[in-house]
Amino acid sequence: MDLGLADRTIVVTGGSSGVGLATVCALLDEGARVATCGRDADRLAKVAAELGAGHDRLLTGVCDVRDADAVRDFVRRTAEEFGGIDGLVNNAGQSRMKGLDDSTAEDWRDELELKFAGVLNPLQAARPHLAASGAASVVNINAVLAKQPEPRLITTSAARAGILNLSKSLSAELAGEGIRVNSVCLGLIDTGQWTRRYAAADSGRSYEDWQAELAADRGIALDRLGRAEEVAFAVLTLLSPLASYITGTSIDVCGGVGRSIL
């Protein structure tokens, strides 16, 4: 199926690894023009070298989404290079594995700043270009934590719930400008974050056995972690002009771990 993304310009934040990188790759495969940013210059250089060779449809830039000026500069450069912006994937972010007693005031402040700035700064910068697109779509990468809090991730759960609420509000606010806003809520996805936690655990088990035990502990119905490319499929579906009547909703990509019916 042709998703209608060829020659459209999509900005992906946090695109140097994991879900963001899988989304960048999938978009390039569909013929889209992609601009992606991240904080790690070395990772971005590697992405540019591996994916950007041989064509001019990939633009990369070092940028912290909490820095509104840097985000505006990156978005401006994207629009100038590619002639506009049709989609935005707000993916930059991380999880903070802490409970209430371990979380400081600084933890709360940093987590809320990252999650909200990670959506609002790119959106505000891209908004005029999206409004001029005629087929604009914003996809906020979130987590099932937004709907069913996890005590071991208390600051992240609260921040993600706020972003889900914000996404719903934005879908109504921006509908008149022709900008759709949706969310993709993740469960446990096999990315660098989990390989690092596996290494830190130093359990002596194989990564496959460790994953299986983790899946059982978290009640994942499909009995495994997800893959980044499985998330990318949902993201591209929502970016596609074929999804032009979908806004203000969320898609769970979580292997059946979600217990909420809302």
Automatic annotation (TrEMBL):
Listed name of the protein: SDR family oxidoreductase
Naturally occurring in which organism (per UniProt): Streptomyces mutomycini
Pfam families membership: adh_short_C2
Family named by the database record: Belongs to the short-chain dehydrogenases/reductases (SDR) family.
PANTHER family found in the cross-reference section: 3-OXOACYL-(ACYL-CARRIER-PROTEIN) REDUCTASE, NADPH-DEPENDENT REDUCTASE BACG
Domain Ketoreductase stretches: 8-164
